[in-house]
Amino acid sequence: MFEDSPQFCAMVLPVVAYGDSVLRRMADEIQKGHPQLDQLIEDMWATMYASEGVGLAAPQVGHSIRMFIVDGAPFAVGEAGDKGCEGFKRVFINPVLFDESEEQVSMEEGCLSIPGVREEVVRPVGLHVEYYDENWVLREEELEGIAARIVQHENDHLDGVMIPDHVSPLRKALLQGRLKDIGKGKVDVGYRMRFPKKLR
User: Fold this and answer.
1) Which residue blocks in 26-168 are alpha helix, DSSP H?
2) What is the pLDDT of residues 141-168, one digit of tens each?
3) Is residue 200 part of a domain?
4) Most CB contacts within 10 A, which of 67, 73, 128, 177?
5) CA distance 156 to 90
6) How many domains does the chain have?
7) What is the rounded CA–CA span in Å between residue 138 and residue 30?
8) What's the pTM value of the predicted model, to 2 decimals?
9) How far apart are CA 36 and CA 27, in angstroms?
10) 90 pairs with which residues across the strands?
């Protein structure tokens, strides 16, 4: 999956848990030539696959920069699979989302930074996204369905937005106990996580 050269020796990084301030910051735009960006991308792929995710944003591994990766392949499996997720493996650098559809749909979402929490989130069905890929080629795509949802979810992380921000005030209040436990490390999870020293 990864190149064998020492330059691209990928490392599985700990996923930052809910409660860490890095997850609430507006991430910085990336300049071309950003130090060790290629290495970070490889590490993020290794981390995402090790934690069985379909997307991972840089703030989730402690880097407050505007980049995320996605691989929608798990959603393309079977007869009921979303064909828009076939081959949907991308690196998004400095993404800009626009032309979101008026039609919206609700779907349950989870997040590697909030293990065990799954909530219904309403999002536009389709959108356009402009971004730079890992080779700094400017691209534009029209996405719909689950691919569009994955991109919206990951892009939220770049703006400091998370799943609890999409639910009703009552539901968010009901989640507070579980969220605090996650921030304190009181959670059983099958991948590496980095917990805040104290819940902010």
Assistant:
1) 37-50, 145-158
2) 999 999 999 999 999 999 999 999 999 9
3) no
4) 67
5) 17
6) 1
7) 13
8) 0.92
9) 17
10) 70
Instruction: Report yes or no on 24 lying in a domain.
Output: yes
Query: For residue 21, is it within any domain?
Result: yes
CATH of the domain at 97: 3.90.45.10
Place of tokens 């959603």: 75
Q: Which residue's entry shows tokens 């349950």? A: 108
In 97-195, which residue ranges form alpha helices assigned H by DSSP? Answer: 145-158, 169-183
Per-residue pLDDT of 94-116, as tens digits, reads: 999 999 999 999 999 999 999 99
Q: Is residue 74 part of a domain?
A: yes
CB 102 within 8 A of CB 164: no
**Paired sense of beta strands 89-98 and 15-16, if any:** unpaired
| 154 is an active site residue | yes
Q: Which domain holds residue 158?
A: 6-194
Yes or no: say if 67 and 58 are a contact pair by the CB < 8 Å rule: yes
Average pLDDT, the chain: 93
Write out the two tokens for 142.
Answer: 């029209």
